[in-house]
Amino acid sequence: MTLGLKRGTVRLCAHDPAWETLAAETIKTLYALLGDAAADIQHVGSTSVKSIMAKPIIDIAVATNDFDFVLSKKDELEKAGFYYRHHADLREQLLFACGNYYTGTGDLQTHFIHVVKTGSKDWHDYINFRDYLNAHPAAAKAYEEVKFRLAAAMPTDEGRAFYLAGKQPFISRTLASALAWSYLGKNISIVIDRPKGYVHEKDAYTLVYPLNYGFIPGVKGGDGEDLDVYLLGVPTPVREADCRVIGVVYRKNDLEDKLIAAPAGMHFTLEEMQAAVAFQEQWYDTEIESLFTE
User: Fold this and answer.
1) Domain boundary among 182, 217, 234
2) How many domains are there within the chain?
3) What span, in angstroms and rounded, lies between the C-alpha atoms of 231 and 277?
4) 100 and 156, same domain (yes or no)
5) If residue 182 lies in a helix (H) or strand (E), which one and from where to where?
6) Which domain holds residue 263?
7) Is the pLDDT of residue 163 over 90?
8) CA–CA distance, 207 with 174 (Å, rounded to integer)
9) Same domain, yes or no, for 36 and 133?
10) Per-residue pLDDT tens for 27-41?
11) Same domain, yes or no, for 50 and 157?
């Protein structure tokens, strides 16, 4: 098994199932050290995506409600090989790292442990990104291609900073899609701000909504606004609804992915979904992922 990189360098390796075993062992050790303060611990990052090459460094996310307790365990964590790394720009995370670079006996970094607040955006980003790439091979391959290009361009010296910055546009866009995808099949409550029959005067045309259109309050989409939802199967104007997400509209040329929902138990084919949202999506390059297998 290849594990670890010299600090500041970038090298990609083929996925190794042994990384998953090592991650599981690391998670077990962290649970033993942190106890109930660890609400959840997950293997994240590229080594958790089975179909792509990755830097041979294990990333682990720890969800906690008590940063102070975790910091009180610094000495115990260090004895177990987890070294606290203070970063002024990580305001909502604690970072620990492993490897002989931190013991002074070598130059390798092998693990990064990202401690975040339970239920935070950071936590959901780690989990959603991993799960979305594992479920969408084409997106995972596109991410691998970005990584490979950046690693080849600057593999040494300050390569890691260049590599991380270069990945960010892809990661940001993919996180928006991953967030929308994470709601597929879930029950949600939405507020309708454009009920059926709503007239929206655009610069070049007038848009009349043939269905109810709203959002999930407090959930921010890729454009920084509340995540929008097309509501199917409700023939009259409404102001709110409890429904199930049955589809995701991915906009390839826009930051705003959308959800498609319907009352629980209602089924719509992919073609029916496409027709229902075409009044607005016709202006975009879109692809719809359906909950239902046709």
Assistant:
1) 182
2) 2
3) 10
4) yes
5) helix 159-182
6) 187-290
7) no
8) 29
9) yes
10) 999 999 999 999 999
11) yes
In SS3 terms, 163-180 reads as HHHHHHHHHHHHHHHHHH
Neighbours of 21 (CB within 10 A): 11
Mean pLDDT of the chain, nearest integer:
93
* pTM confidence score: 0.92
Q: Tens digits of per-residue pLDDT, 6-62? A: 887 888 999 999 999 999 999 999 999 999 999 999 999 999 999 999 999 999 999
> Exposed, middle or buried by CB within 10 Å (0-12, 13-18, 19+), for 283?
middle
Q: What is the pLDDT of residue 115?
A: 97
What's the CATH code of the domain at 238?
Answer: 3.90.80.10
Q: How far apart are CA 8 and CA 176, in angstroms?
A: 29
CA–CA distance, 51 with 54 (Å, rounded to integer)? 10
Residues 59 and 119 reside in one and the same domain: yes
Beta bridge partners of 208: 199
Pairing verdict, β 111-117 and 38-44 = unpaired
Last residue of a domain, one of 182, 212, 240: 182
pLDDT for the residue numbered 90:
63
Per-residue pLDDT tens over the stretch 263-286: 999 999 999 999 999 999 998 999
Domain co-membership, 132 together with 237: no
What does the alpha-carbon distance between residue 22 and residue 30 come to, in Å, rounded to a whole number? 12
